[in-house]
Each structure stands twice: as structure tokens, then as C-alpha cells.
């Protein structure tokens, strides 16, 4: 019987002879070109016209044992060596086995050196390959008496290595070819015997204990070269001689010309030379004696022409000279790194053999992790829906004994003990001790070491056996308990650490403690120890609060404790519900009220019909999966679809239908994204359900009530919010463990579940033709698939039927449904205490926003000491703890403008009704005019789609703001891989547009004090953009001069002179005008309670960090790092330089320069200057400038393209002249990243000054033979992204340091990357802290630490060149590595700027 399953895009045919004892499995792979090919070629029950329903990523195992023996598989590509031949090699096995690490998996053992270290050279296991004649003449057959070929040493068969060599020696006496030819044969034969040893050892350790082979199971072996016609009798009769002696004899002959031609065991293959005697693909790698590299036998083609050799030798010598010139220029500091030839770097640094080994090892590890994650998710889902039997069979079906060796070699090995631990705890609740013991046996079979959690589950089972119904008289098994405790001690676990090392659910912890105390009445577990202090030198002064007065709490009494408690209950209920309905703010047109009512009735009828059909379709498809599950045991979707009642899945599908119906008519998202998103929503619901079931939700709710009191206290006695929560965790030790990872699903599982539900949506949702649900009218699908070509890839997309889109628009949007993690919280978020715990109360939140395919950084962070990440976590907690409220006056004005058809000048998008009408065709039009009409139609259609998308986004933001208009709310925060911080709710947050920022205020107000009003005025003028290069005194004077306009804007925003509308940021300007008006009209200005946040923005912050790194005096002055009487404006400086260049070109007759006269403005090039330090290319800069030129009505649009190219080039040239130190550091970072990615085939990684590990997640897919796809670092992206990402990590570090110190200073702090917010009365304090932390940050040896990190990171990389040590190619690669080492130790030069001057710079952040 042949079954089909999928593994990462592969179609596998699995043949199984015995399900109970799966030993003979033959797997053949065929690459699936795409999903459509799979659907069209596979015909199996469970398949529909729209998809294949078995979305398992793992093999299918037949549940019914077969009695009929399978036929022998013929024509294997990988030959099997007979059992007797394995015994002959026993002497070598005894040398290998004791040295291998028994805790590692068989596959890794096979890939390891004898000392247990990973050996990349034998990464690809091979079957043994010997010449046919040798097998036929040497190995005994069934009738041959084997005793004469062996000697007996006790009970063990021994056959020495010298006997094998004598076979060759005797042959040399009969026929005497050239010594060089025989030398090649000796070396080749040595490799083949090592290959036999390695493969035989692999077969031995992977072979089930009860498996045995008869001597008749000998298979033919492929011939790798000319046959060695050797007989065993010659071997026995000849004298003993070793391989080394034979080589010495040959090398001493006259035919050996030089020592370089002698082939030794440690020589390597030059793949540029054609093989003659042996097919290189058949060669097997041999471990080097010092375990530093794996090399292949070198075969020199005898008739290779000297001309070809000389040409290749000359080419290699040329590369050597070029590399030496590079090194010399590096030593002389005359190297212009940006002029370096990329092709030369590729040639010089291309250690492809080592790179491919690293890539394949990384790919194998990734497959193993994904495999174990899939098993864990499947087992957990089965346990959640009370399907314990399938969960129990899963480890057995996929153990190393029962899974195909080809899959084991690819990495499909069970290595995660958590899979077993979850099963053990589930079985412990039923008292199934025998099944738990069987799981321990399975762990031993798969070489998975038990953890302390495994023994805890066993102890839980022992205690529950005495408590289960019907077994109340069962005594406690003291003997088994003593054995478990002894085993714990034997495994060197500390029993007292069972509370801190294990994660428990419900009452598991209490059951374990009771079981231990029955054996040891005096047992007392160690309390959970939590390190609370910083390990970062930059924050070491904050570790001791014993001698200090606790700092004031800036968030104290933001709400009464009783109100916070009520909102906490409401938030808890909302997260349990996992979504929220928000009333739309769209204004209804009274004229269309009747039509909307009629269409609303039709839509309700449709939705009622859809619910019934979706439920019926879901149950039908689920029944098909259930029937399929009864026949096979496989990791299918069935348990994921049984977690909730069918109504829950139907509700999710109905919400998805509404989202699709309200989407843009022109935009159709891909099925890949839609399915993954829908699966993610189901997973979030499952995570919340699991927390309720495990008792974690109840414990969080109990702890949170006490956290509210600490959050609302007047002083920060614990120092910060993380320590508050950690203190509560130490207090509430009973019950489930909270700091555990959520039961997340792999991306493939989410996508498959989403596909399953989307297939039901596509097949079951119908709409009547003519847009009326009248019976008898033909129904048509409400949604349909389309396929579009994106970058030469065909992608499936989903579109709603136009009739359905019109129906939703006619009805209007009355309410919007959002996932709970898409809206702000009603209470302070739970503080981040680790990479797993923090954010929303119940909903799962990621600490770092990473691609699903590259979780490496998250794994590195999880392995870090907890205190290393405390600065990052505390900064996130400080930002998350800031309470906000809505400025109702501004919100109402914005809603009125939105419902009054918007205003483009105020950044309020108009509705699609304001889009120009589509032009009509006229019969009298000629061909050119018709083409223009078609082009205009397409343009208007795209414009209409964009207008609708922008209008919907604004509707979402305003509706959420209106929903929270009477509430105080909080934004939970997380970060990207560089450490840049973002609010979790995507639609409405203070990182949004000017519209959103204008309606946000601090919930906690503060008196203005003596200087608060002045800072309000300065901030107002900063928002307008009228006085960019003026001092603060001039800005204050300007504000006083325009006080009448300010008050008029506050009193009559839409009917007055509208001075605020001419501002760069109009809505924030209006809000500030209203705040100033309220302040000046209050009885006491200094006592006026102000909620308005004042911003202090860095002056091109990226250039500020570059100037500090290079101690560049000119650069520091240009970006206000150096003090000045007036603020420097780098954008205006660049404009002046570009204008000078333009004037010169105009005089020389350049038409574009003449056309740009008067149009080189600050706004035109600002974005390009800002993003240049973040790695923008000339193409990107051209696009930025082109956008700005198109927004200038007076500029001739026909010249915009050429003008944007001209300005981009001039801007880059001027910036390089202004900031030479910046350019040098950028070049150093760029070249370093390129060498790392190309030489070591590794992603660039570093650690920020506050301890955050950063790994660039840029990879590319490479295809290998056999349809295998691997991922390796994308050297181009790694190189281009490193400078901007490194600077971004520095500006995020500066923000984190500032936020932590602001909390200790007792002031409110919020940020938008390099823009810091606080109350007007605290601006001066925040500015001082900002400058001090910038100085402290850059007093660290940042570039020196970075270079040391790179040297330390790659010093363990051995030189695994595929070329001989004496070849020119080897020298080229060695010089390239030295070039990288020298590059990282020779830092860019520094200037003489005194960085402490930044403390006196008023306009550093202003």
C-alpha cells in the first residue's frame, strides 16, 4: 500500500510493511512544482476541487498491520553492505563507538568526529561503495566457508587492516603499472574503506535491536573507477605490510617527481581538474587527524596538458597579487573600500566547500526544529481535545526505529524532550504509570535525555494514582518513587530546584511536592530566585536603592484603584472573548436611509444562510478528516479543528467574510497571507483557551489586582514595573507557572488550518445573481480565486464578487470587528519579565518582531542570562506604562472633516465618491485618443482603489479613537530585531500620522510650572516649521507676535483665519493652540494642569551617531552635537550646497539645472538626506525626490524624472563632502558585513551596548540537486543593511537609556524612535538626561567592541579550504581571511572632537 504525505513542498510515497514494528520503509521523493500540480495529480479521499485536505507536514503511518510481506525493492541507488562485511570491520567500530557522545542523536553521531565534535566533511552520509570485482572475489557467498578468512580472538572476529593492504601489494607483484597510478589507487582504497567503516557504523547504531540480516542479502555495488582485480587468497598468503609502508615504497621510486605530487591522507581534491580513476561524487570524506577539516583524495589526471595547468596557475597567481595589493593598501591606510571590485572579493573569499557545509548544517538544524515544533503542537492539540491515544502513538510512529533512514539523515529526528513531557503530564492525570515508563523507553531509543520536568510528571502520576476515582485504596508506590529520586540524583539534577526549573499547570506543582514529601518529610524546595539587578555597565549605578529615597511614580493615581479594578475585569473579559466590536463613525446620508435599510435586510438574510452553509460544510469536511484519521495515524489537521465547537470556527469565517467584503475592489490579498492570518487568529483563541484551562488566567487575574496597587502607588519602591511583577511572582508561588512559552503553532500549521477554512468559504458562500437572495434565482460564488504573476511567480489571490462589494457599500459600515491585540488596553500591560512573559493579560504577544522562518534571534535571547535583557525589558515597560487619553475637541473636528468628504491638505482622505468620473469613449476618437482614454481609465481605477484604502484606514483609526474617547488606555510595546520600539496595536497609536498624534494626550496631567508655557510656545513654532534655524528666544518672540492667530485657531478652527492649517503638522498645531489658549486663560498659568506632550526631536539622529562615532568636528556642528547659538539645520546646509552646484551647471548650459531654479527646497531633499545615513540607494533617493517634485504644482512634470535623477546625484555628492568621517565608517561597516557574509557564509550579528543580541534576518534560497532548497545569508542585503541597522540599534539604545533614567527621575516619557515626549514642565530634565546618556553611550568603545565581537565570533572557524595547502588557491583564501581580521582590528580614523561638548548643546534634541 502506498500513502502520500508532504514535507516542505515534497511529495513522498511511503511503503510500509508493518505498522506495529515499522522497520522496512522505502521512500522516494518527487518535487511538487506547485500546489496546482499536487491537486491535479493526487486523487485521494479528502481532496476537493479547491484544495488537498491532508495538510500534514509529516509522514502517514498505516494504522492496520499488514500480514503480507512486501516485495523486495529493486534497483536501489544506495547499496547495502552485507552483514558479514560489517563484522569484518568490527575492529574499526570499537575505535569509533567509545569516543562518540551517546547523548546525541544517531544522525549527529554519524556526522561527528571521534571526539564528539561536529565534522562537516562527512555531513552527507553515503552508502559504502566498493568495486564490483572486489565484492565478487573477496566477500564470501552463501556456500563459501568463511572461517578460513577470519581468525578468532576469544568470541570476537578480528581482521586487521594490514590484511586489506596485502591485497593491493600482491597485485602489484603480478602487474606493475606506474607507481603514481598505484599510489592513487592506494589513496582511493583507503578512502573507500573509511567509507565502509562510517556507513557500517551508521547502520549499526541505527539498526533496531531485533533486526538481523542474512548473508544472502548482498546487493551489487556501483563501480567508481577501474576495477581492482584482487582475490582473498593473495591477501592471506602475502606478508603483512601497512598502508604507510606501501606509500613510502612508492614514494621512494624514481617515477615520483616531487613531494607535491604525492597523495597523502590529508590532501584535498582540486575540483578544477578532471577526475580519471574515480568518480568524485563517489569519494567519501575522511576525518583529518587533528579534526580540523575534512578533505578528499586528490586525483591528478595523467594526460592533463601543461598548457591548461599553466593558465590556471597564472590566474590564481594573479588573484594572489591582487589580494596582496589589498593588504598592502590596508596597511598603508590608502584603501578606498567603496571602489573595491566585488568580483574580486567573490573570487578571493569564496570558500564554497566550507560555506555549503555550514549552510546544509543550518538547514538540517532548521528542519529538526520545525519537525519537533510540529510534533509538539500536534501532541498539545490532541491533549487539549482529549485525543490522548493519537498523541501517545505520535512519538512511537516517528521514532528513529520507525522512520525512514533517509528522513533521519535530513534531520527528522525527535530531539525535544518537551514533546514527551506534555504527554507524561497528560497521562499522569489519568494515573497511567506504565505508559509513562514506555515513554521513557522511547526517549532512550531516540536518545532524548529526560529533563527534570519528565521526572516531575512521573512523581505527579504516582501521587494521583492514590486519588483517582475508583482507586482510592491504591497505596503510594514508595519503591518506584525512590527509584525516580535516585535517577534524578544520578542524572545530576537538583531536586530542590524542581520549582524553579519546571513549568506546571493547574495543581501539578502541589501533586509533585506531595509525592516528594511522602518519601522525604523534611523536603523543602528552593524558592524561585530572580535576579533583579542590571549587568550592564551603563546602568550599574541604578542597582542600589537602599541608600536612596524611592523615586516618585510618574503614573501614580492616574485612576482610582477601584476604577482600575473595574477596567481590569473588562479587559480580562475582552481578551477572553478575543475580539471587540467598534461602532463606525461614518456619517449616514439621510437620503439613502431607505436603501441602506433594504440592503441591510438582504445582507442579514445572506449572513444567516452563510452561517448554516458554513457550519454544514465544516462538519462535512471534518467528518471526512475523521474517517481518514481512523485509517491512518498522521499529523493531520483533525485535532486543530476539534479544539472548539463548530460555531467558533463559523464565527471566525464570518468575520473573515466581512473583512474581504469591505476590502478594496482593486486589491486582492494572496491566499498565502489570508490563510496564515486566519490560522493565526485561531491560534490566538487557542492560546487564551489554554491559559484558562491551565489555570494561568485565574492566577494572572489574582496577581493583577495587587499589581494595580503597586502601579498606582506614589513611589516606586521596587524601582521599576518589572521588579513589581517579579515580586508578585515570588509571592504567588502556588498554582501554575506563568513564565512559560505559549503553545504556539508552526507557521505551516497556521497556514494549513487557514487553507482548510478558506476552502469552505470559497465553496459554501453563495450570492444570488442579481444581488438578491430570492429563491429560485441561480446562485453564484461570493468569492473566487484569481492567479497573478508576481516576479515570475504565480500567486493565488482571493477576490469578493463585485456584487458582494456593492452590497456591503450600499449597506454601509455600521460596526468594525478587531482582534483584541489590535486595539489599546484598558489597563497597564503586564510588565515584560522575560522573552516569554509580558504584554497583554491573556493574548500572546511577541517580544521581538521576527519572520516566522528565522527565529534565531529569539532563541539567542532566550539563552541569555535574564539580567542581560533587563535594560531592554525595562525600557519597554516604561513606555507601555504611560497612560493616554483622547483630546475630544480635536477628535470631533477631525470626524466632522472626515464626514464632510475629507480634506487632502489636512491629511484627511476623501471618500471614493470624490474620485473623478471615468471618461467615456466616443466613436469619433482616433486610435491615439482611444488609447489615452483607456490609460486614463486604468489610472482612475487605481486612484479609486487607493482612495478607498486610505479612507478605510482613516475610518479604522477614528472609529477606535471614538470608542476610547471616554477611557484611559495604554499601548503595550514590543520591538524589532534592531531594538527599535513599536506599540503593538497597529491601527491607532502615537507612532501614527499627524492626525493621530493631534488627538492624543497624556492621561496624567502636570502643572505647567515656571517654564512650561514657554516650552509649549517653542513646541508650537517647531510644529509649524516657520523658524527652523532660529533660536529658542526668537521662536518665543514669534509665538508672542502671533498670539492672536493662536487664540483664533483655538476658538474658531474651521471658521477663523485658519492659521494652524498652514503648519507642517496642522492637527498637532491645532491641539497645541488649544492648550496654550487654556493655559493663558487660566487663573494661574503655573498651576494649570497640562496633559499635552511636548516633543524633542533629534537633528538627523543617524548623522549625530556617526559624528559621535568618528569624533567628527564638522559633522558634529552640522547636526547640533556641538553647541551653537542657533540650531544648525543640516537639510538647509545641503540645500545650499546643491544650489551652488546647480547654479554652476546652469551657467554651463545644463537644461535640467535651469529647470530646477527655485525648486531646490528643504522639503524636496529632506527625506533623502535623512535616509542617506540609513543606507538609501540612489534609486530610492530618486523616487523620494520625484514624489516631492510631483507635489509642487508649478514644477513642469515632464521634467520631474530627469530632475529627480539629477538632484539625487548632487545630494549624494554634497553629503559625502560634508561628512567624510561618516562615509569612512559606513564603508568600514559595509565591507565588514560583505566579508562576513561571503567568507564565512554567516549572517552579521552583534550585541548592543545594553546587551541586546541582534542578528540580521536576511537570507536567500538556493536550490540543490534533488529538489532540496537551502537558505544561506543574502550577502547583498547583509552588506547594504548592516550600516543602517547598526545605527538604528544605537539610536534605540540611546532611547532605552533615556527612558530608564527618566523613570528614575520621576517624569513621564514616551518616544517615537528619536523623538522624545514629556510634559512641558519636565522638558529641561528630559533634555539633560538625553544628553548625558548620549555621552555615556558614546564613551563606550563601540567600534572596538564590535571588532572584538567579530574576531571572537569567527576565530573558531577553521580554514576548510577545498584546495591543498600548497596551492595558490589556498593562499588566496587564507589571505582573504587575514584581510577580514585586519579589517576588523584596524578601525576607521577618529577626529579630535570633544564629545563632552554635547552636554552644553541646547539644540541637540529640540
TrEMBL record:
EC number: 2.7.7.6
Catalytic activity: RNA(n) + a ribonucleoside 5'-triphosphate = RNA(n+1) + diphosphate
Keyword 4Fe-4S appears in the UniProt entry: no
Molecular-function GO term, any one: mitochondrial promoter sequence-specific DNA binding
Gene Ontology process terms (BP): mitochondrial transcription
Keywords: DNA-directed RNA polymerase, Nucleotidyltransferase, Transcription, Transferase, Transit peptide
PROSITE patterns from the UniProt entry: PPR, RNA_POL_PHAGE_1, RNA_POL_PHAGE_2
Keyword Transcription: yes
Gene3D superfamilies in the record: 1.10.287.280, 5' to 3' exonuclease, C-terminal subdomain (1.10.150.20), DNA-directed RNA polymerase, N-terminal domain (1.10.1320.10), Tetratricopeptide repeat domain (1.25.40.10)
Top-level taxonomic group: Eukaryota
GO cellular component terms, semicolon-separated: mitochondrial DNA-directed RNA polymerase complex
EC class (word): transferase
UniProt xrefs under SUPFAM superfamilies: DNA/RNA polymerases
Function according to Swiss-Prot or TrEMBL: DNA-dependent RNA polymerase catalyzes the transcription of DNA into RNA using the four ribonucleoside triphosphates as substrates.
PANTHER family, alphabetized: DNA-DIRECTED RNA POLYMERASE, MITOCHONDRIAL
Family note: Belongs to the phage and mitochondrial RNA polymerase family.
Protein name in UniProt: DNA-directed RNA polymerase
The organism of origin for this protein: Owenia fusiformis (Polychaete worm)
Amino acid at each position: 500500500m502506498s500513502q502520500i504525505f508532504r514535507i516542505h513542498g515534497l511529495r513522498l510515497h511511503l511503503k510500509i510493511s508493518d505498522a506495529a514494528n515499522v522497520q522496512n520503509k522505502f521512500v522516494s521523493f518527487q518535487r511538487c512544482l506547485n500546489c496546482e500540480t499536487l491537486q491535479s495529480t493526487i486523487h485521494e479521499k479528502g481532496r476537493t476541487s479547491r484544495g488537498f485536505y491532508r495538510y500534514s507536514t509529516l509522514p502517514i503511518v498505516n494504522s492496520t498491520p499488514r500480514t503480507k510481506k512486501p516485495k523486495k525493492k529493486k534497483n536501489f541507488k544506495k547499496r547495502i553492505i552485507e552483514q558479514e562485511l560489517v563484522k569484518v570491520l568490527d575492529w574499526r567500530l570499537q575505535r569509533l563507538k567509545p569516543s562518540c557522545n551517546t547523548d546525541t542523536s544517531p544522525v549527529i553521531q554519524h556526522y561527528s568526529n571521534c571526539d564528539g565534535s561536529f565534522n562537516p566533511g562527512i555531513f552527507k552520509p553515503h552508502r559504502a561503495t566498493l568495486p564490483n570485482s572486489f565484492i565478487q572475489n573477496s566477500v564470501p557467498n552463501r556456500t563459501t566457508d568463511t572461517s578460513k578468512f577470519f581468525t578468532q580472538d576469544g568470541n570476537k572476529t578480528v581482521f586487521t587492516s594490514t590484511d586489506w593492504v596485502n591485497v593491493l601489494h600482491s597485485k602489484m607483484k603480478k602487474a606493475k603499472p606506474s607507481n603514481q597510478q598505484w599510489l592513487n589507487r592506494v589513496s582511493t582504497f583507503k578512502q573507500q574503506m573509511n567509507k565502509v567503516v562510517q556507513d557500517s557504523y551508521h547502520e549499526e547504531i541505527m539498526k533496531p535491536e531485533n533486526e538481523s540480516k542474512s548473508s544472502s542479502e548482498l546487493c551489487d555495488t556501483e563501480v567508481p573507477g577501474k576495477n581492482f582485480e584482487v582475490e582473498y587468497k593473495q591477501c592471506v598468503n602475502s606478508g603483512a605490510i601497512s598502508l604507510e609502508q606501501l606509500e613510502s615504497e612508492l614514494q621512494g621510486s624514481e617515477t615520483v617527481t616531487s613531494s607535491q605530487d604525492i597523495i597523502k591522507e590529508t590532501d584535498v581534491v582540486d575540483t578544477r581538474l578532471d577526475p580519471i580513476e574515480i568518480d568524485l561524487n563517489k569519494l567519501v570524506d575522511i576525518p583529518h587527524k587533528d579534526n580540523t577539516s575534512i578533505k578528499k583524495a586528490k586525483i591528478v589526471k595523467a594526460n592533463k596538458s601543461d598548457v591548461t595547468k599553466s593558465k590556471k596557475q597564472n590566474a590564481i597567481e594573479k588573484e594572489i597579487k591582487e589580494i596582496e595589493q589589498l593588504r598592502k593598501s590596508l596597511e598603508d591606510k590608502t584603501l578606498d573600500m567603496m571602489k573595491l571590485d566585488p568580483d574580486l572579493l567573490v573570487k578571493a573569499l569564496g570558500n564554497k566547500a566550507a560555506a555549503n557545509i555550514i549552510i546544509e548544517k543550518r538547514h538540517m538544524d532548521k528542519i529538526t526544529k520545525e519537525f519537533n515544533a510540529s510534533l509538539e503542537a500536534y501532541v498539545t492539540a490532541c491533549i487539549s481535545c482529549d485525543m490522548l491515544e493519537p498523541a501517545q502513538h505520535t512519538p512511537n510512529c516517528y521514532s528513529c526505529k520507525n522512520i525512514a533512514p533517509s528522513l533521519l539523515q535530513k534531520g527528522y529526528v525527535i530531539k525535544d524532550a518537551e514533546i514527551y513531557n506534555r504527554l507524561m503530564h497528560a497521562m499522569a492525570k489519568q494515573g497511567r504509570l506504565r505508559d509513562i515508563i514506555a515513554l521513557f523507553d522511547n526517549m532512550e531509543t531516540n536518545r532524548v535525555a529526560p529533563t527534570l520536568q519528565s521526572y516531575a510528571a512521573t512523581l505527579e502520576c504516582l501521587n494521583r494514582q492514590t486519588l483517582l476515582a475508583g482507586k482510592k485504596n491504591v497505596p503510594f508506590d514508595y519503591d518506584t518513587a525512590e527509584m525516580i529520586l535516585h535517577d534524578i540524583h544520578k542524572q545530576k539534577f537538583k531536586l530542590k530546584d524542581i520549582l524553579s526549573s519546571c513549568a506546571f499547570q493547574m495543581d501539578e506543582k502541589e501533586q509533585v511536592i506531595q509525592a516528594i514529601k511522602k518519601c522525604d518529610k523534611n523536603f523543602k524546595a528552593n524558592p524561585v530566585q530572580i535576579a533583579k539587578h542590571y549587568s550592564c555597565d551603563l546602568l550599574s549605578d541604578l542597582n542600589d536603592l537602599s541608600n536612596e529615597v524611592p523615586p516618585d511614580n510618574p503614573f501614580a493615581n492616574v485612576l482610582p484603584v477601584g476604577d482600575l479594578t473595574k477596567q481590569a475585569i473588562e479587559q480580562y473579559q475582552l481578551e477572553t472573548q478575543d475580539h471587540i466590536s467598534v461602532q463606525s463613525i461614518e456619517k449616514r446620508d439621510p437620503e439613502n436611509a431607505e436603501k441602506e435599510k433594504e440592503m441591510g435586510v438582504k445582507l442579514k438574510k445572506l449572513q444567516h444562510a452563510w452561517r448554516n452553509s458554513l457550519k454544514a460544510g465544516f462538519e462535512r469536511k471534518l467528518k471526512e478528516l475523521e474517517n481518514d484519521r481512523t485509517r491512518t495515524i498522521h499529523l493531520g489537521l483533525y485535532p486543530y479543528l476539534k479544539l472548539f465547537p463548530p460555531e467558533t470556527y463559523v464565527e471566525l469565517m464570518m468575520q473573515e467574510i466581512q473583512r474581504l467584503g469591505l476590502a478594496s475592489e482593486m486589491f486582492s490579498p494572496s491566499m498565502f497571507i489570508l490563510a496564515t492570518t486566519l490560522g493565526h487568529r485561531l491560534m490566538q483563541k487557542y492560546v487564551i483557551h489554554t491559559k484558562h484551562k491551565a489555570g494561568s488566567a485565574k492566577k494572572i487575574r489574582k496577581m493583577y489586582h495587587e499589581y494595580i496597587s503597586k502601579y498606582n502607588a506614589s513611589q516606586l519602591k521596587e524601582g521599576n514595573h518589572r521588579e513589581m511583577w517579579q515580586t508578585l511572582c515570588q509571592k504567588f508561588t502556588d498554582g501554575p507557572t506563568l513564565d512559560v512559552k505559549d503553545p504556539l503553532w508552526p507557521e505551516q500549521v497556521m497556514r494549513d488550518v487557514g487553507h482548510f477554512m478558506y476552502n469552505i468559504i470559497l465553496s459554501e458562500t453563495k450570492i444570488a445573481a442579481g444581488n438578491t437572495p430570492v429563491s429560485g434565482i441561480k446562485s453564484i460564488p461570493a468569492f473566487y480565486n484569481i492567479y497573478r504573476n508576481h516576479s515570475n511567480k504565480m500567486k493565488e489571490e482571493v477576490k469578493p464578487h463585485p456584487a458582494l462589494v456593492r452590497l456591503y457599500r450600499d449597506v454601509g459600515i455600521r460596526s468594525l470587528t478587531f482582534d483584541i491585540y489590535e486595539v489599546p488596553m484598558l489597563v497597564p500591560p503586564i510588565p515584560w519579565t522575560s522573552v516569554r512573559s509580558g504584554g497583554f493579560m491573556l493574548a500572546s504577544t511577541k517580544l521581538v518582531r521576527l519572520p516566522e522562518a528565522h527565529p534565531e534571534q529569539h532563541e539567542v535571547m532566550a539563552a541569555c542570562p535574564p539580567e542581560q535583557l533587563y535594560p531592554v525589558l525595562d525600557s519597554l515597560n516604561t513606555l507601555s506604562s504611560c497612560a493616554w487619553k483622547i483630546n475630544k475637541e480635536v477628535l470631533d473636528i477631525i470626524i466632522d472633516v472626515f464626514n464632510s468628504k475629507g480634506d487632502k491638505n489636512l491629511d484627511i482622505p476623501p471618500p471614493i465618491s470624490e474620485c473623478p468620473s471615468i471618461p467615456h469613449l466616443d466613436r469619433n476618437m482616433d486610435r491615439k485618443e482611444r488609447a489615452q482614454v483607456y490609460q486614463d481609465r486604468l489610472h482612475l481605477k487605481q486612484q479609486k482603489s487607493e482612495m478607498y484604502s486610505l479612507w478605510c484606514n482613516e475610518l479604522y483609526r477614528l472609529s477606535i479613537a471614538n470608542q476610547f474617547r471616554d477611557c484611559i488606555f495604554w499601548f503595550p510595546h514590543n520591538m524589532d530585531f534592531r531594538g527599535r520600539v513599536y506599540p503593538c496595536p497597529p491601527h491607532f497609536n502615537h507612532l501614527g500620522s499627524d492626525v493621530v498624534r493631534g488627538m492624543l494626550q497624556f492621561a496624567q496631567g502636570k502643572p505647567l510650572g515656571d517654564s512650561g508655557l514657554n516650552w509649549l510656545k517653542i513646541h508650537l513654532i517647531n510644529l509649524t516649521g516657520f523658524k527652523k534655524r532660529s533660536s529658542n528666544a526668537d521662536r518665543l518672540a514669534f509665538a508672542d507676535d502671533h498670539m492672536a492667530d493662536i487664540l483664533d485657531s483655538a476658538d474658531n478652527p474651521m471658521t477663523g483665519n485658519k492659521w494652524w492649517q498652514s503648519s507642517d503638522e496642522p492637527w498637532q498645531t491645532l491641539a497645541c493652540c488649544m492648550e496654550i489658549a487654556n493655559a493663558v486663560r487660566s487663573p494661574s498659568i503655573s498651576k494649570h494642569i497640562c496633559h499635552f506632550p511636548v516633543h524633542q526631536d533629534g537633528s538627523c539622529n543617524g548623522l549625530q551617531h556617526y559624528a559621535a562615532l568618528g569624533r567628527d568636528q564638522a559633522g558634529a556642528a552640522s547636526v547640533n552635537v556641538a553647541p551653537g547659538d542657533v540650531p544648525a539645520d543640516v537639510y538647509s546646509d545641503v540645500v545650499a550646497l546643491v544650489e551652488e552646484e546647480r547654479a554652476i551647471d546652469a551657467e554651463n548650459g545644463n537644461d535640467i539645472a535651469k529647470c530646477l531654479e527655485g525648486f531646490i527646497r528643504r522639503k524636496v531633499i529632506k527625506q533623502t538626506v535623512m535616509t542617506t545615513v540609513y543606507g538609501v540607494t540612489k534609486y530610492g533617493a530618486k523616487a523620494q525626490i520625484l514624489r516631492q517634485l510631483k507635489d509642487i504644482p508649478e514644477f513642469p512634470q515632464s521634467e520631474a524624472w530627469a530632475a529627480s535623477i539629477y538632484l539625487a546625484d548632487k545630494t549624494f555628492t554634497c553629503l559625502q563632502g560634508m561628512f567624510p568621517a561618516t562615509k569612512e565608517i559606513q564603508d568600514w561597516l559595509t565591507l565588514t558585513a560583505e566579508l562576513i557574509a561571503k567568507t564565512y557564509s554567516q549572517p552579521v550579528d552583534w550585541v548592543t551596548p545594553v546587551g541586546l543580541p541582534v542578528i540580521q534576518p536576511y537570507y536567500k534560497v538556493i536550490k540543490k540537486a534533488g529538489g532540496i532548497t537551502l537558505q544561506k545569508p543574502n550577502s547583498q542585503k547583509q552588506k547594504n543593511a548592516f550600516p543602517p541597522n547598526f545605527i538604528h540599534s544605537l539610536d534605540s539604545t540611546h532611547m532605552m537609556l533615556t527612558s530608564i533614567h527618566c523613570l528614575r527621575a520621576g517624569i513621564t516619557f514616551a518616544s517615537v524612535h528619536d523623538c522624545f515626549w514629556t510634559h512641558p514642565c519636565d522638558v529641561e530634565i528630559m533634555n539633560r538626561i538625553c544628553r548625558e546618556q548620549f555621552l555615556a553611550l558614546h564613551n563606550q568603545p563601540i567600534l572596538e567592541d564590535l571588532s572584538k565581537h567579530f574576531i571572537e565570533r569567527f576565530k573558531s572557524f577553521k580554514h576548510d579550504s577545498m584546495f591543498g595547502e600548497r596551492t595558490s588557491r589556498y593562499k588566496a583564501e587564507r589571505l582573504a581571511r587575514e584581510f577580514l581580521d585586519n579589517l576588523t582590528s584596524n578601525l576607521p580614523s577618529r577626529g579630535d572632537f570633544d564629545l563632552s561638548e554635547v552636554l552644553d548643546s541646547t539644540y541637540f534634541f529640540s
